[in-house]
Every structure is written in C-alpha cells, then in structure tokens.
Amino acid sequence: MGDYSTWENWIAKITGDLKSSRRWRQLYPISRNQMNSPVIFASNDYLGLTSHPIVKKSAISAIEKYGSGSGASRLVTGTLDIHIELEKRLAEWKGSQSALVFSSGYSANVGVISALGGDDAFIVSDELNHASLIDGCRLSRTNFGVAKHCDLGDYERLLGENREKRLIVVTDSVFSMDGDIAPLEELAKLCAGFGALLIVDEAHAVMGPYFNLDSEGKYFGAKIARIGTFSKTLGSLGGFVATTSEICDLLVNRARSFIFSTALSPGDAGGALGGLSVIQSEEGETLLGNLRKNVEVVAPYLGLKSNHPSPILPLIVGEESLAIEASKFFLNRGLLITAIRPPTVAPMTSRLRIALSAIHTSREIELLCLAIEEWLDR
Ligand SMILES: Cc1ncc(COP(=O)(O)O)c(C=O)c1O
C-alpha cells in the first residue's frame, strides 16, 4: 500500500489505475460539417433534429425573444411563458395531466426519484438502468433493490418482500446500452397490483414503445411518471417529467434539482418546441420511417432481429482493450463509434454502441455494414 494521503499521490494512483485497466477516457472534439470528418454512428440525435432548420430557428427565435439565459430558478424569476407553453405541449404529447421541465434529463431523473422516495419507501430498479436513475435512487436515500434485467419474477419478489412500504418501480423504457425494451405493460400490471408508482425513463424511446394513459392518467391501473429528455430525439437540451398534476405540484416543492438550479434556457426550450413540432408532423413520420429502415438494414449484420426495437445496436466485444481496438478499426474506415467500457457497462461486456439516425444516408449505412462484416471476419 502506497501513501495516498497527498493529492499528488492520490491523483497519480487513480489515474494509473484507470489507465492500466484501459478505462481512461478522453474527449474527442468534433468539427461539424468539415470535409473528411468521420460519419458519426454514436450520437443520440436519432432523427437528425439538432441540425433541422425548424428546430434551429425555434431556438434562435426564443433567444431573441427571451434572451440567452433564464436568469433564475423556476421558483424565483425563471418561469418564462415559453416554459409553460412547453409543459402544456409535453403533457398533451404524453397524454398526461401535467408536465414539468428540468434543465437536463439527468436532473429530471435525480430530482423526481429523490423527491418521491423517502424512509417509508422502497424502490425496485432494473439492473441495466441508466446511471441517472441509479443516482436518483442513491440520492433519495431510499432503500432499494436491484431487479434482474426485465425479470418480472424478480420484480414481483422484491415488491412482495417490501409490500408494507410505499413502492416505486424504476425502469428505462429502452435500455441505453443494449437497445432492448422493458416489458412495460406487465410491469404496469404488477405495479397496479402492489399499489406501486411506475417511473419510466423514455429517453431513447424514439421507435417506441409508445403507449396511452387512461382517463385517470394511469397505465394498466398503475400510477405512472414518464421521464424524457430533449437532448436525444428532440434535438435540444433539457429534461421533463409527464405525470399527474398532484405529483408535478409536489415536485415543484420537493425536487432539489428543480428548485436549486437555474431554469431551462430559453434557447433549449425553443429548440425542444421546434423538435416537438417536427416529430408531430408528416416529416416526423418520414424521418421515423427512415430510422426504422436503417435499423432493419443494420441489425442482421450484428446478429440482431431485423425488427430490433430501437436505433441502439450493441456490438459486444468483452475486454476493454478490444473495444478500444474496435473503435479505432471503425474510425480508420471513417466511422466514429465510441468504445463503451465499465462502469457504463458491466465488466467483460465492453462494446461499441452503434446508434443510428434517420439522416444517415444509404451509402453511410452500407459503409457501416461492410465495416461490421470486416470486423467480424478479421
Ligand atoms: C436513459 C437515459 N436517461 C437519462 C439520460 C440523461 O439525459 P440528459 O442527457 O438530457 O441529461 C440519458 C443520457 O444521457 C439516458 O441515456
């Protein structure tokens, strides 16, 4: 054991450990629209809306109207009418009574879960949930159990063992590193049986699963809070929860990441409104159709079903060093796909997380498929 009581020694040790385990990460600056830059197959801009003229124009108009920042938290002077308009549109889109926006999807997850947890509660969280959901569980200081991935029997066991508590089930709708989907209908029925609140993170649910709520705002009898982000499908930045008015009002009073953080910027709110108008238009349907087509073409090259439910296609390689090698292999062929390593994924499941977009051209998709074949045959 060395002496790690000084900052110099501690930083050297932690840095050395990360580097020797091949988990050291570096930033990769991207210059958009530059000749010879790689084609990005790692972004969450699934419909290509970050560069859509309507989305850009909507963000710019909001900045011109309201300024570049919102100036204060929502409870002080940060609530602009564009926030109210956005929340109304989001509630309509999700079929919920109300919606509340946060400055990111991360802060929505952390804020919602910690506001609704407590000593008297118990959370059941899927083992492949996104880090922001896990951090929400931890920050809520609520006891929680981790259910085996999408294993309804395990969910039922954990709920049953804690039935005297105020129960919460937390799951991604589409899992961010595997691109598979949660059995939402069955989970909702289970939640209804136990009186549990179902919190679903729909950050990656661009191709579904889609679902409607009943007139009481419930899903198969379960109280539900749907969390989303503007940073992926909507081409902007920010997060939201769509749920009952009662819960939204409570969050305004209890969600610390909402109360103690400056309100979503007008530009981001404007961008999200623009993104929403595109996806609700005929053009949105066309973009979604392109995305589905791209998924259908690429999925079989990775041994996935052609009706794979999301634009996230994992190429699991195992070792950290092999994931880095694979990423370089694709980059040498003009394709940028970042290596995903622990702690983002479990040890020995390092991977390339291939993310497709509606605006990838058929030539770009063809290049990707060829490179996948070449990598698998090497
Ligand atoms: C499933 C999931 N939830 C939440 C987030 C956080 O969203 P945001 O990037 O808006 O903070 C992400 C991604 O970063 C995610 O993949």
What does this entry look like structurally?
This protein is an alpha/beta fold and 378 residues long. The protein is 43% helix and 16% strand. It has helices spanning 7-20, 53-66, 74-78, 81-94, 105-116, 131-139, 152-161, 184-194, 245-254, 256-259, 266-279, 282-298, 320-332, 362-377; strands spanning 39-40, 98-102, 121-126, 143-147, 166-172, 197-201, 218-219, 222-229, 239-243, 312-318, 335-336, 339-340, 350-355. The structure holds pyridoxal-5'-phosphate (PLP). Pyridoxal-5'-phosphate binds at residues 104-106, 109, 130, 132, 172, 176, 201, 203-204, 229, 231, 239.
Summary, kept brief:
This protein has helices spanning 7-20, 53-66, 74-78, 81-94, 105-116, 131-139, 152-161, 184-194, 245-254, 256-259, 266-279, 282-298, 320-332, 362-377, and strands at 39-40, 98-102, 121-126, 143-147, 166-172, 197-201, 218-219, 222-229, 239-243, 312-318, 335-336, 339-340, 350-355. It has 378 residues and is α/β, with parallel strands linked by helices.
What fraction of the residues are assigned to beta strands by DSSP?
Answer: 15-25%
Oligomer type: single chain
CATH topology title of the largest domain: Aspartate Aminotransferase, domain 2
CATH first level of the largest domain: which class? Alpha Beta
Topology as H/E string? HEHHHEHEHEHEHEEEEHHHHEHEEEH
CATH architecture call of the largest domain: 3-Layer(aba) Sandwich
Query: Roughly what is the average pLDDT, rounded to an integer?
Result: 96
Unreliable runs, pLDDT <50, ≥5 residues? none
Outline: globular
Q: How many separate structural domains? A: 2
The class by helix and strand makeup works out as alpha/beta
Q: CA-to-CA gap between the ends?
A: 42 Å
Please identify which CATH superfamily of the largest domain we are dealing with.
Type I PLP-dependent aspartate aminotransferase-like (Major domain)
What ligands does this structure carry?
pyridoxal-5'-phosphate
Largest sheet report: 8 strands, mixed
Query: How big is the Rg?
Result: 21 Å
Number of helices: 14
Strand element count: 13
- Overall helicity: 40-55%
